[in-house]
């Protein structure tokens, strides 16, 4: 109750004529004073709302200022700020919302609190108590204001629930990339006897710089009994030098989970590798469940299927008692493992092909020509994906980049001059136009030929002479002159149209992005007779991606239709065709029969691949790579395309291989010899 001062009361009674007016003024004054006295810095509910808003703003100092004196005696400002900051920021609290119960009275306020956290939404009902100090209401604080079940000796723990990145498997369930163990090689300072000697010995074994190891040992957190990681390496790599490592005083080797690639170099260009997500990538992907420290695909299948392989980590927020036991779980967001990917790859074939060509600069694609399943994709030489995951040293990275053989270069994604391996394609183009008759004899031209004097000194040359220059013999003996004449018969306009019909100038509809094949540099026309003639036997400006060439070859066993290659395994594969009726059924059958003779005929350029018990068809090719037509110092690419040609093959296959620098090694014959063990391995499965 508000009391009126005595002098005002006397004045009211003395001046009766003004009693009503003065009484009203006094009443208003009483009300205003009462409201001012009640609100002060706000009603209890308003103080609570302000307190919560400070959490959102991370203004813990202002929060402390809203506490009553008793609370401030129990906890210092520093302790209060540290405790609240650590908890709220640790759980990622945001979107704080407090709803005060309208029926709350006096110094007790019932409310509902909710917030978003890294583990999901947390909501609870609670009651806050206030103390009135002068005209202001102050909050009585204890730990239950953070969470109702929390006491002074309790702690809040955030547990990361680690998701697993999906694994990549071959068609038989063999892991190409996935979770495994890596060796962590490090030093324990307190166990080192001679610091300089230990660092020097370890640096030599690990291929590192001594100063880099010394820098790790001088990190601020390092204590005498700390394990200081120096380098991660594959368990296989560590095993080779394990005895030497453990002889160095202070060295310790531990095992930890890591992304591993069991086939190493044999599949690295295919699988690619992962590395820790960069700041730039994290900024782009932060809304897709990515966090700092996670691994992300950088190349190959790892980046191709990143969205499916990527895991999402979960979190659990719980209250622990003073003994460290879990008292209450406040929120849980379950982890989500990445999807396992099963491919069409056959790891055994991938391994066999790599082993055959590991010392060459080559690329190979093996596929089922009936279904389009890609069985192997190999590029040599190669790097080891494991090195990139575990952290490749600067000197090793520099060595890879300076290597003239280009181990980082993925050759099966590129386009190359196909040479004579392109002749069956030109034969099909010619028959498509009706301008090439397979039984027409083009006549004997010797080992060199030119259309007329308009070609100047340029002549088309070939390596073998034979009788009856018909298509079958031209393929058996790989006659450049025959196919130069065939291209001229087709004509530049129709040649270009047919090339486009077969997918030249188009993106290959395949999981991995490949270089676009070309029939000329401008992808529009062939500008001279010489260029057209050279294009007839896979030279000129013709460049083909090996997977594209494999798709074209598949038409010879698919009644003329080019199968669409694919990489994701299907239990019941049903072929899809990239180019339906690329050739007529009759044309495809004629070319296939002729390619069988390339293998079966004693003089066939592919006869070295003849394998008893299996009917094969194929075509060799040697492409000249030189600066000009008169250049004699250029190199050569060797090709061999081979496929099963039996009508009742249970597991048909097709293999296209290109090897560089075969000029002094037997040309395409070198590739045939290298391919034979692969054929035998496949047929002996």
Automatic annotation (TrEMBL):
Q: What Pfam families does UniProt report for this protein, alphabetically? A: MecA_N, PBP_dimer, Transpeptidase
Keyword field: Membrane, Transmembrane, Transmembrane helix
Domain Penicillin-binding protein transpeptidase residue range list? 363-664
Does Membrane show up as a keyword for this record? yes
Signal sequence residues: none
The organism's place on the tree of life at top rank? Bacteria
Q: Is NADP one of the keywords? A: no
Q: What is its main location?
A: membrane
User: Which stretches make up the Penicillin-binding protein dimerisation domain?
Assistant: 162-328
- Using the record's annotation, list all stretches that form the NTF2-like N-terminal transpeptidase domain: 44-152
Q: Where in the cell is it found?
A: Membrane
| Gene3D superfamilies per record | DD-peptidase/beta-lactamase superfamily (3.40.710.10), NTF2-like, domain 1 (3.10.450.100), Penicillin-binding protein 2a (Domain 2) (3.90.1310.10), Penicillin-binding protein 2a, domain 3 (3.30.1390.30)
Membrane-spanning segments: 20-39
Q: Which family does it belong to?
A: Belongs to the transpeptidase family.
The name under which this protein is listed is Penicillin-binding transpeptidase domain-containing protein
Species of origin reads Anaerostipes hominis (ex Liu et al. 2021)
């Amino acid at each position: 109750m508000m009391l009126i001062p005595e002098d005002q009361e006397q004045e009211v009674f003395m001046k009766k004529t003004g009693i009503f007016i003065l009484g009203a003024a006094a009443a208003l004054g009483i009300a205003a004073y009462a409201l001012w006295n009640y609100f002060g810095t706000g009603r209890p509910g308003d103080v609570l709302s302000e307190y919560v808003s400070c959490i959102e703003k991370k203004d813990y100092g202002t929060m402390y200022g809203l506490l009553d004196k008793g609370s401030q005696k129990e906890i210092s400002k520093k302790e209060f700020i540290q405790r609240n900051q650590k908890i709220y920021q640790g759980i990622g609290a945001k979107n704080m919302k407090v709803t005060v119960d309208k029926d709350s009275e006096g110094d007790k306020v019932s409310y509902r609190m909710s917030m978003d956290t890294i583990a999901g939404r947390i909501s609870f009902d609670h009651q806050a108590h206030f103390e009135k100090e002068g005209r202001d209401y102050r909050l009585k604080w204890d730990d239950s204001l953070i969470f109702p079940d929390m006491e002074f000796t309790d702690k809040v723990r955030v547990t990361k629930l680690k998701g697993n990145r999906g694994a990549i498997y071959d068609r038989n369930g063999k892991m190409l990339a996935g979770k495994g163990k890596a060796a962590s090689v490090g030093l324990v300072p307190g166990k080192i006897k001679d610091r300089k000697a230990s660092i020097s010995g370890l640096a030599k074994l690990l291929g590192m710089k001594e100063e880099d190891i010394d820098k790790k040992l001088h990190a601020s957190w390092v204590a005498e009994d700390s394990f200081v990681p120096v380098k991660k390496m594959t368990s296989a790599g560590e095993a080779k030098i394990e005895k030497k490592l453990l002889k160095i005083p202070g060295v310790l080797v531990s095992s930890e989970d890591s992304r591993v690639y069991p086939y190493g170099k044999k599949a690295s260009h295919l699988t690619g590798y992962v590395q820790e997500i960069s700041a730039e990538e994290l900024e782009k992907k932060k809304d897709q469940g990515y966090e700092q420290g996670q691994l992300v695909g950088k190349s190959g299948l790892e980046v191709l299927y990143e969205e499916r392989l990527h895991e999402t980590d979960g979190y659990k927020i719980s209250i622990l008692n003073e003994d460290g036991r879990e008292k209450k779980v406040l929120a849980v967001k379950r982890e989500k493992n990445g999807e396992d990917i099963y491919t069409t790859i056959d790891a055994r074939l991938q391994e066999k092909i790599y082993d055959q060509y590991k010392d060459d600069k080559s690329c190979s694609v093996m596929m089922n020509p009936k279904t389009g399943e890609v069985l192997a994709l190999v590029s040599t030489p190669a790097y080891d994906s494991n090195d990139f995951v575990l952290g490749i040293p600067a000197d090793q990275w520099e060595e890879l980049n300076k290597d003239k053989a280009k181990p980082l270069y993925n050759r099966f994604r590129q386009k190359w001059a196909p040479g004579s391996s392109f002749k069956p394609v030109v034969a099909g183009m010619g028959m498509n136009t009706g301008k090439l008759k397979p039984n027409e004899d083009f006549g004997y031209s010797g080992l060199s030929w030119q259309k007329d004097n308009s070609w100047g000194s340029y002549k088309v040359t070939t390596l073998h002479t034979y009788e009856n220059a018909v298509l079958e013999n031209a393929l058996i003996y790989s006659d450049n002159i025959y196919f130069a004449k065939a291209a001229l018969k087709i004509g530049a306009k129709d040649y270009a149209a047919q090339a486009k019909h077969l997918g030249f100038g188009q993106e290959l509809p395949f999981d991995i992005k490949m270089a676009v094949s070309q029939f000329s540099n401008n992808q529009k026309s062939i500008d001279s007779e010489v260029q057209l003639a050279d294009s007839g036997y896979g030279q000129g400006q013709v460049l083909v991606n090996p997977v594209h060439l494999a798709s074209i070859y598949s038409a010879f066993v698919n009644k003329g239709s080019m199968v669409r290659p694919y990489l994701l395994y299907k239990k019941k594969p049903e072929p899809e065709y990239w180019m339906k009726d690329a050739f007529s059924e009759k044309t495809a059958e004629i070319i296939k029969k002729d390619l069988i003779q390339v293998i079966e005929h004693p003089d066939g350029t592919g006869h070295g691949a003849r394998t008893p018990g299996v009917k094969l068809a194929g075509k060799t090719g040697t492409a000249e790579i030189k600066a000009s037509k008169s250049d004699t110092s250029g190199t050569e690419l060797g090709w061999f395309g081979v496929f099963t040609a039996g009508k009742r093959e249970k597991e048909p296959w097709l293999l296209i291989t290109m090897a560089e620098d075969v000029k002094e090694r037997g040309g395409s014959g070198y590739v045939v010899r290298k391919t034979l063990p692969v054929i035998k391995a496949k047929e002996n499965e």
